[in-house]
Structures are given as structure tokens and as C-alpha cells.
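> tool_call: predict_assembly(chains=two)
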Amino acid sequence: MGNKNEVWLGTLSLMVLRTLATMGPQHGYGLARRIEQISGDRLSVNYGTLYPALLKLEQDGSITSEWGISDTNRRAKFYQLTRAGRKHLERETRDWHETTAILARFLSPAEEG
Amino acid sequence: MRTWRGWSKRLRAWVADGDRDRDLGQELESVVEMHTDEYLRAGMTREEARRRALIEVGGVEQVRQTVRDGRGFPRLEGWARDAKYAMRALLRTPGFSVVAFVVMAIGIGASVTLFTVVRSVLLRPLPFPHADRLVALYSQDDRSKPDLENNVASGDFYDWQRSSHGYEQMALWRWTGYNMSGSGGDLPEFLNAGTSSWNLFATLGANPALGRLFTPDDDHIGAGLTVILSWSFFERRFNGDPGILGKTIRLNSQNYTVIGVLPAWFQFPDPKIQLWVPWQVGESRDAIFSHYIHIAHVVARLRADASARAALQELSAVEYGLYTRLRGSGPMEQGVIAKPLLEDVVGKVKTPLYVLLGAVVCLLLIACLNLSNLLVARSAARRREMAIRSALGSSRLSLIRQQLMESLLICLIGGAFGLLLSVGATQWLISRWTELPRGYDVHPDGLAVGFSLGVTLMAGVLAGLLPSISSTGGTILAALQVGSRGIGGSVGRASLRKALLTAEVALTVVLLIAAGLLFKSFLRLRTVELGCTTKNVLTMTYFLRGDQYSKPEQIVGFDTQLLERVRHLPGVQAAGLTNVVPGDGYYGDHEVWIPEHPAQAPGEHHFVAYRTADPGYFSAMGIPLLRGRLFSNDERLEHDKFVIVNQELVRQYFPGEDPLGKHLRVEWRTPQGENYEIIGVVANTKYLVGKPPRPMMWFPILAGIPGNSGDSVLVVRSETDVTPLAIPIQRLIASLDMNLPVKNVLTMEQIIGRSTTNSSFSATLVLSFAGFSLVLAAVGLYGVLAYLVTQRTGEIGVRMALGARREGVLRLVLIDGLRPALLGLGIGITVSLGMTRLISSVLYGTSPLDASVFLAVIATLLISATGACLLPAWRAARINPMCALRAE
């Protein structure tokens, strides 16, 4: 478990937003598990990173939270995407694609001339 | 928009902090439980599952703290909270805190004071527009006397003025003085005055506060007598009444019309100057255009577009032309030097002030090191607390910040007291240091306040950083383990403190050596033999000027009557008259020729300081006659062609010859000069403390030559305390001439004291700084060693139980404490060997490597260090092994 990659700074909030967009409201535990799962267990989510990210998203108004009951019948806090958050996600996703596309051009050996 | 919303949420979050925190706690707990559930499903026991879950979540408290930092205004809150903690910590140990405050207050107060003085006197420009373009010009002979500048002959000045292109304006001035008659109930008084070319104020860029300044019409031979008053004189003598403009005042019993008043800020060159008169008025044509009488100071303002170098070269060329043309007929200089006007005004206190500033910076550093040292001790004691807090989730930065807060708080409070202290100290320094140029100008300004703030913060960081870094580093576990064993006090901490101590001792040694050298030099100065009696001798000065004293008989009549009456006063042992007493300055010289000797080569000149004396002067001052005789009573008025010389004159001009009966040709009574027969040789007296003797000659004061014999200093010697005689003698003078002002009623000791104030201030201030540093260093040494002994009680107990003797333990501890002291001593001495050369220019009769001072400092330091170490060492040796081991 120790040799897994830590989540890169700044990308975690994007992952959180994306997860919430596809899966609907989630609690912290579920989010962490889901992100790890989607990464094919190549990432490990640290709660000391996750919770500040959640807090920041909430302060920005991208997500809201409320207490609810989990599948396992536990009381848990659920996070939900807001409309602003959805827009934020779209924008960030676009930016991300653009960034990776640019980087890909740089890094792809075929393009060298 | 989003950030704004973020901020508002943060604000709300900050208000509802407690709720949110509880909420987060519950949330994290639910996460832990979900993890636990998972492990339970995997078949673990409940405890194991919970343990694994906690590990996975990664410390609930740390997560909480990180989230907390993201919420509200953590930085601000953190600082405020740290300040609160630090305050509490300081209040818990009031003794420590008070000592720390006092130490820092003295350190900061002293450095702010000195900085204020240095800034006001040396760094702040003179209060004139474009003061950087103002220079003082001197004539100078760069071949024979490259370091000596000579005053300018006014004839040279007028030639410079005519032919220079690089300067906007140049003006000349010199000191003078006037007797002002008493009127309307005011006492007669002597006024220090300046006489200047009409354009001095325009050159400097000053406008009058009232009336007008001089014009060329006021400044020529035969012009009406005009005077400009200084603001302080105008306020003091005329109650600030503008009605005085256009009226006349009586100076040297002549009427001068007051045409203007200078503004209050105009204090050039010295606030002692009360009034100004034009240069050429009342002077002879010969004197004004003479190229040989070097008496003037010259101020010039460089053109904005001119090069300082080219302007000076042009002047030097003019001067060299004069030199080649006139060198045969009188003393001439070959060139001109310029120095910034500021330098000219304050140059002589530059080194003493920088020495003092250096000393206070040392003092402040020592104070910081000391505080640092104390804080290291405290932080060592709190290492466990730090370890626990970092285990509970505090970041290292926040721990450092908290400890830094403590030292910052100490320094801020100390700095506030220091600032108050420095206000008082600056006042005190200025009022006592009367010889400080621009002393009137010393007041704290924005820069000084900024400096004090900067110094305070820097001191705080400097003192706090080291301890806090040292106490927070390292592994938590080690700290907890060491802490629990009680022996504690890791070796690293102690060696850090020893390093601080070494630095402190080294700085102290440098300060002590500087202080020792300055003090020895000062003592040398104070005990220097002037060559005359200085005990129970009173002097007072008066100038016989004006119509009333325009004939020799009038001057001689006054002097002889006064001497006669003074000698009959009860308590007076002897009395005499001269123009300048030993130790009161060079005054002036005249060129002499010796008719019995072959003519001197062109360009070679004998200059001899001139003095006057009555027959009783030498015995009254206790100046021994070596050969020949003194003046007799009938050597007066026209029968005055006799002169007494000092030994130095004989040594220089009559080597291996009998000077008695030979003559000196001097322009004394007339501009043509006449021969004076040498009738006696007296022992050398010093014209100024700390200066080598120069050739000197005395003419009979009872010749009564107006101008030459009118300057009188009455000296009175008494068997006992002479000061009670001051009033009856002044009353005697008033009974002879009620309009004659008397000035400088001073004992010889006061005259010497006045001329040594600069070195007295450097010496006593640096010495007190050094003494304070020594105390700090000793306290630091004691503190560290006492702490080490407490820490090592167990170890020492074991040693003693195993058979170590008390002397052995004593030696062990003593050596432990003395090692940093010795190391610091070595470093300090090495540094001093290199540094003391910097102060050699302010030392008198003391080598910068004076062995006795170095030895005394070494001895003082060793004794203090041993003293400081002895108590803890002795306590260590008294340790009862049984108690020590049981306490373990």
C-alpha cells in the first residue's frame, strides 16, 4: 500500500467533482474508495488531503454537503455537486484536455522535426 | 466572485468555528467506522479492525488540524494565539521575563540612541538646499604637509573668486567676538560672532527671517556698520521684537545698524555664533588683500553642471600661480583642497561616533545572544511539550512560530522601553556632550524610528530562531524517550549554548579591549602634564575694545589696577595676565625671523605661537623659568622690545646656541615688524592636551598695544578651593568698568575637561557598555553551567558513587564551563588584534596593541568566567551521590 502514488496536487478536486458528477452524492469514504478504484488502485487517497480539498470546494460553492445514511446504515456526510460545480467541472475538464493535448505534442517523439 | 464567496464562507466558518469542528469530528469518526466495517467483513476482530482503520485514515487529529488551517483565518488566528501563549509563558516566569526585558531594553535603547545621534550628526545633510554641492575649501601644501589643511588668506580668496568658473558662489568667514555694552538693565556681555563676506548666506542658500541680508554695499572698507542677528540672540536679548530692525546696537562701543535676523534653523557653523558682521568693515586694506594671513574659512557652492574635480583643479592652478609669484615674500600654500561642508563641520567626531555605534551594536548582539541562550535553556525544558504537540499534529513551522513569538514579544516590549530609554538618553547625551557639532540638530526622525523597529524585529528573530529550530528538530520518539529519562539535556543543546556563549565572550572581549584602550588613552590625556599648575587656578577672559581702550595707557591702566586689587583679595596667592592659558588651544601664530641667523631659504618659514604675559604670569601659573629672567615691571608701553620663549623654540631654532640676547623679528607692534630681545627661556607648556609642544613666545602684555594686548585672561591661584573667588573678582572688574563683559570663568581643570570631552565620552560610554556586556556574558556562563550541572546530577552521582573525588568533580565542571570562555577569549583577542587599528586615530599615547590593556582584559575575563563557573562547580562537588541516585 505504501508504494502507491499519492494524488497529484490540484488534480484531486477535479477527480472529486468528476466522481460526484457520475456517481451522484457520495460520502468521504465512498469518494476515496471510488477514486482509488477508478485509478485501478494505482492511487491512494489520503484523508488529510481529501478533506481540505472538500472544504475548499464547498467554500467555492462547487459542492454542498448534508448528513445522511450510508448503504451500510452508517450516519455519514454526503457531498453533492451544485450547478456552479457542474460548470466548474466542465471548464476544468476542457482545460485539462487542452493542457494534456499540448503536453502530448511536446512529449510525442514523432512530432520532432 | 468565487473568491469573494470563499472569503465570506471563511468568515462565517470562522464565526461558527466550534460547530464545524464538531461536525468534522463526527464525519471523520463515520469514515473510521466505515473502514472498520470493511475490515470486519474481511474477518478481523473488532479491535484489530478499528486499529487498522485508524492507521488508514491517518490520524484523525492531523486531518482535523489540516482542515482547520484551511478554514477561517488560520494565520492571523495562529499569530494571535501564539502571542497569547507567549504572553502567558512570560507571565509564568516573571523573573526571567523582567531580566530579558531589561537586557533588551538597554541593548535596543543604546543602539537607537547612538543611531539617532549618528544619523542626525553625520548622515543627515546640512539643512541647506542642495547641501551636497557645498564644500569647504582650504589651502594646502601637498608636498611638505599633505595632511594639513591651512585656513585661507583672504587675498587668495578674492583671487579665487575672480577666476573660478566651477563654483556658483564662494564666501569666506571666520570667528570673531564683540563686547556688547549693557543697556536698559541688561548686563554687558561678550558675544561670539562671525564675520563673513556679504554672500555667505546666499552661498549656503539661506534667506533672512526678518529684514535683509548683506549686500556688496555693506561689505567694503568704510561702509556703514551693519549687523545681522541670529534668531536665538534676537529672541533672548530683544525678546523677539521686530522693532529692533533699523535700530542700532553698541558693539565694542560702536553703533551697528541691525538689518536682518537669520531664521532659527540657521546654526552654521555653530549655534554659539550670535551675530554676523561684514568681512571688510573695520579692516585695513592690507589685511583684506593679504596673501599671508591665513585666517579665513571658505565655503563654496559647486555649479550643478560642473565637475568637482575640474573646479578644484582650476582653483589649485590659481593658487599655484600666486605661490610662484609671492613665495619669496611670505608664507604661501601651493594648492587647494575641498571637502564636503558636512565633513568639515562634523569630521572630528566621526571616528568617536562610529566607535560608539560599533560598541552599541556589539552590546546589542551580546544582548541577543544572551536572550537566545536563555531561550535555548527554556526550550530544552519544553522539548517534551514540543514533542507531544508535534505528535498531536502540530507542524514544525507552527512550533517554531510559537517560540519565535516569545522572543519577538520580549524584544517588542524591550524595544518599547528601549525607545523610551533612548529618548532620555539622547537628551542626556546632547546636554552633556557640549562639544558635539550639530548637537542642536539631534532629534529622532522617521529613519531612526524605522531603525529601532527594524533592530527590534531583527533582535527578536535573531534571538528566537536558533532556540526554536533546535528544539523542534529531531525525531519525536527520541525526544519523548530522552525526556522521560530525566537525564535529558541532550548534548546537542548544550553544545549549541556553548557556541552561543563562545560568541558572546568573544564579542565581550572585543568590547572590553576597545574600552580599555579608550580609557587608558583618556587617562593619559587627563593626567598629561600641561607644564603648569592646574590645581586651584581660576581663569576669566575679558576683551578691552572700543574707544575707551584705544590708547595703550588706558589698557595698561586697567590691567595694572585690576592686578593690584586682585592680588590684595584675601585668599589670592598669585595672579597674572596672559592672552591664552595652556590647554586652551593654539590661538594663532606669527612668522619670525632671527636677525643673527643667515637669511632663510625662500619658502622656509618659522611660525611661532604668540602669547602675552605680565611679570607675574609665569610664577602664578607655576611655569618654571629655565634661563634668563622674566619681564620686569618697567617693561611696558613703548619699552617693550623683550620676548620670552619656550624650550621648544630654542630646540628648533637655536640648537646648540645660547638664545639669550639674540632677537626675534616679528610683525607684532607694526606691520613692518621689529626686533625683540630674548630675555628668558621657560619650560614647555602644552597648548592643547594631547598635542606635542610647539615653539611659543610671550610679549609683555603691559605694552598695551590696542588689539594685541586687549585680549586678556586673568589667572588667579589660591591655596585652597579657588571657585569662591570668582564672584569677588567679577565684582572688582565691574567696579573698574561696569560695561566690560567677563566670559569663560573657568578653573584650569574645567578647561582641560572641556578639551577632552570627546575622548571622555568615548571612553566612559564604551567602558560602561563593556562592563554591561561582561555582566551579561558572566550571567550567561553561569546559567549554562548551572543548567548543565542540574542535568548531570545523576551522572555526577554515579561518578562519585564509583569513587570520583570532589576535587575531580569540581575540576570537571569548571573545565566544562571555562572551555567556551577560553575559546571565546582566544577568538576575541584575535579579532581585536585586527580591529583596534581602526580606533588608533582616537587614541592618545596608547598603542592599539597595548599589552597592559590586553593583559588586563584577559585577567578580567578569566576572573569573571571563573567566578561565574565556580558556583555551579562547587554545587556539583557538593552533590550527595545517594540523593542524586535516589532522585533518579
